[in-house]
Amino acid sequence: MRRARGRSRREFLAGGLQTLVSVALFQSLFVRRLIAGPAAVAFSTWVRGLDDACLDLKRSGLSLVQWQESIQSLLERIELAELLAAIDFDALEKQLDYPDLGVDTARVRFPGVEGLPEKLSFYPKFFGMKAGRAIIPHGHRNMVSAHLIVGGEMHLRQYDRREDEGGALIVEPTIDTLAGPGEASSISDDRNNVHWLIARGGPAYTFDVIVTGVDGPGYDIENLDPESAEPIQGGLLRMPKLSVEEALERYGKDHHGQDPEG
Ligand SMILES: [Fe+2]
After folding, report:
1. 244: Cβ–Cβ under 8 A, 6 or more apart, which residues?
2. How many separate domains does the chain show?
C-alpha cells in the first residue's frame, strides 16, 4: 500500500498535537467573533473560493475534473486549526452518535464567519467515525464531492467507473493509500467515482464539499462489494452492487482484525 506523500505516523500525530493547540487559539478568535482580523478575512475568502468553484461547475462549464482539482487544491491549502475553529469542531463532534456500523454526519455551518453568501452553492458536511468504521464503498451519479481529512488517519481506496452492467459496475482501481489530516480526495462521474474510507487507529473526521444535481436534477449513490469483485481483463474489476443494509453489514465495521476497539 502506498503511503500518502511519505508522511510517517509520527508526523501525523505531531501534526495532530499542533492542531489541537492551534484550534484553541483560533476558536477564541472565531467564537468571540473577532473576525475583522486578517485570519478571518482570509477564511471567508477561502470559503467563497469553494463556493465560486461550485457555481462555475453548474453555470460556467468548469469540467468535473477541473472542479476536483480546484477544490482539492483549496482544501489542502487551508490551515486545519483555522477550519476546525470556524466550523466549531467541538460542537459538531458532540452531535455525532458514532454508530457501530458506518459513520454519522452533521451539517456544517460557519457560525463566526461574516462576508459569506446567504446560501452557499455546496453542502458543507462533517463526517465522523470510530476506529475501524468506514464510509462504505460506493459510487455516485450526477454529484461531486471532495473530502478533507481533519482528524485521524484513513485507508482510502478509489476506483474509476468504466461501465454499468446493472447488477455490477466495471471499475478500475486508481487509489489505495493511507491519508491523514490535511489530505483531500474527491469523486465525480469522470474521475475516481467510487470511494471507500476506513478509519485507522482512532476516531476520524472529514470536512466535505458536496454538490448534487450537477447536470440536471437528481443524483444517485450505489453501494458496492469490492471484496467480491471479479478481476477481468486490463486490470478492471467487476464489482457487484449491494443494498445499503448489506453494505453496512459487510463494510460498516472493519472485519480484518484492525479495529482496536473490537
Ligand atoms: Fe460518496
Report:
1. 136, 223
2. 1
Domain assignment present for residue 191? The answer is: yes
Q: Does the residue 257 lie in any domain?
A: no
Distance 178 CA to ligand 1 centre (A): 18
What is the domain range of residue 197? 9-251
User: Is 51 contained in some domain?
Assistant: yes
How remote is the CA of residue 29 from the centroid of ligand 1, in Å? Answer: 33
Ligand 1: centre distance to CA 33 (Å): 33
pTM (2 d.p.): 0.84
Question: Quick check: is 2 in a domain?
Answer: no
pLDDT tens track, the chain, 262 positions: 434 443 444 444 444 545 555 555 555 544 444 344 777 788 899 999 999 999 999 888 899 999 999 999 999 999 998 899 889 899 999 999 888 899 999 999 887 777 888 899 999 999 999 999 999 999 999 999 999 999 999 999 999 999 999 999 999 999 999 999 999 999 999 999 999 999 997 899 999 999 999 998 999 999 999 999 999 999 999 999 999 999 999 999 987 644 444 3
